[in-house]
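Chains adopt folds. We examine one example:
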Amino acid sequence: MMSESSETRLVAESRVPESSVRSGDARPVDYSRVFTQAIDRLHAEGRYRVFIDILRNKGMFPNARCFAGHNGPKPITVWCSNDYLAMGQHPKVIAAMEEALHDVGAGSGGTRNIGGNTHYHIDLEVELADLHGKEAALLFTSGYVSNEATLATLAKVLPGCIIYSDELNHASMIAGIRNSGAEKRVFRHNDLAHLEELLSTDDPALPKLIAFESVYSMEGDVAPVAAICDLADKYNALTYLDEVHAVGMYGARGGGISERDGVADRLTIIEGTLGKAFGVMGGYIAADRTIVDVIRSYAPGFIFTTSLSPVLVAGVLASVRHLKSSSLERDGQQAAAATLKAMLSDAGLPVMLGETHIVPVMVGDPVKAKKISDILLAEYGVYVQPINYPTVPRGTERLRFTPGPAHSEAMMRELTDALVEIWGRLELRQAA
């Protein structure tokens, strides 16, 4: 997750100083130097991102194979996947995708305007609307696109709209708000008093939209959804809830925090992803029929994008239907998260003990976070990606673990022992 303040700094720092591309002697721009310097800055700050070369083992998650830095594939254990419930490996999901592939082929044929509504898309939108108790739903190619396209379009359809955004909202929400051209008010993270102060100051006659998340994926904390709905009612504001780290994970049928807390009916729009707990790919919104029709009819990010492959949609459809009736995966995941938090805490490691399935371990330094990640992979066969700026503010760099129902206690003990050894080797601070 990228905070509003971090995102603003990133944009500013990504701009190349004019002196580096323009000079009084009218020399041509050295494009290669400018691009090289941009990458060099990331290396110097310890936040250059390296993506490992990996293949998951079908039906054996969290086991995988890593191909980087050695001869042939090396067995590893994945600890940072957002496929929280291992549904990307579920036999029902794989079988549904194989059946769709042999039934209709690989691609969708283009945008839905041109290629039409593949029937799988219609079925899935019905299931997602039902999941959240809404009249309709709309599929997008990713959760990022669903946030950006919907938020940008909503405010343009509402002249004078003011958007109130939690300071830790995801980069996709920030992009949508910026592209909307609407006025923006940033409220302190989960701070109801600050949000009400901002709402009460603005003209009551202007349209208002409160945009926030349910589970914040880098801290693992939860928004006070019901209380925010109370403020929305009081100040006649619409609500937009990003549930990407909660759908499939919480609620009796996997409807997210809003289902768990019994407030889904109070939210104007619920947005979710199909690439995390549901294990495949895509994003969506669920709302009343008219709002969904407005986004379908006006959002460029929907209109001009090739629709999801029906093979992917078939897999998601199987996953959503399964998780509506099965709590086995959710229960197993919550148990695994609680066990790992307890192990890390008992070992004196600086784990953030939030209430959700996210298990962050604070490091506070980008170079050291990357070093720990490298040692874990090279020496212990453990894969966890370091989380550095701008995803989190500087000084709060961390490792983010996402234990799932398939992570055994033996795996957790091995991970904990490895972290304790590395913490001692690098002389890192223990938990307070």
Observations:
- The chain has a mean pLDDT of 92.
